[in-house]
Write a structure and sequence with these properties.
Radius of gyration: 17 Å
Number of domains: 2
Enzyme class: isomerase
CATH topology of the largest domain: Pseudouridine synthase
Structural class: alpha+beta
Family: Belongs to the pseudouridine synthase RluA family.
EC number: 5.4.99.28, 5.4.99.29
GO molecular function, one term: 23S rRNA pseudouridine(746) synthase activity
Order of helices and strands: HEEHEEHEEEEEEHHEE
CATH superfamily of the largest domain: Pseudouridine synthase
Distance between the termini: 28 Å
Largest sheet: 10 strands, mixed
Function: Dual specificity enzyme that catalyzes the synthesis of pseudouridine from uracil-746 in 23S ribosomal RNA and from uracil-32 in the anticodon stem and loop of transfer RNAs.
Helix content: 10-25%
Length: about 210
Amino acid sequence: MASIDTFNDWIIFEDEDLLAINKPSGVLSVPGKPPNPTPCVQDYIPTPQAALLTIHRLDMDTSGILLMAKNKTAHRFMSMAFQNRETTKGYQALCAGIIGSWEGQIQLPMRCDWDNRPRQCIDFVQGRHAQTHWQVIHQFDDYFSVKLSPITGRSHQLRLHMKMIGHPILGDTLYADQSALTKASRLLLHASHLGFIHPTTHQSIALNNPASFI
């Protein structure tokens, strides 16, 4: 278990209504189904902040900005903003291979792969619309850094979409081939940007928290 000082080190934004943290890879956003020994964010929250309410989620293996509410009014407002796609989200990742262009769009419908949960799959009949914009930051010898902007918010969307265009995210235990998997000790996907309208002040807030691996 991390110390209180560790959780405080995670904080990147805080006011009377909201708190945003830099969630580490390997920590669940919310408690898992029992029995599940995997630590979640709530396990690290010190007692004075124990009433924090989860607004959205990141995959356990994804690091980066996670926004939480300090009261029910802020929680309700921000939950609706996420549901109605009134937030802007940006990610950074390292992906395998040499890519042929500097940016593009991926539109591939997705659904849960029921026989291989929690994996998702592409399904042009029953899948839900999923759209991702990508923009290369830098091409290295056999991998590249990239900005990923999910237009929709499907589970594992960025991970599956990058796999489907032949460039899985390094360290991805669910979708990467063996070569891409062994190039990193963790999933190299990071929630680096979150933009939203504040629930009380109604001002535009932009949180930026670049990945340490970029």
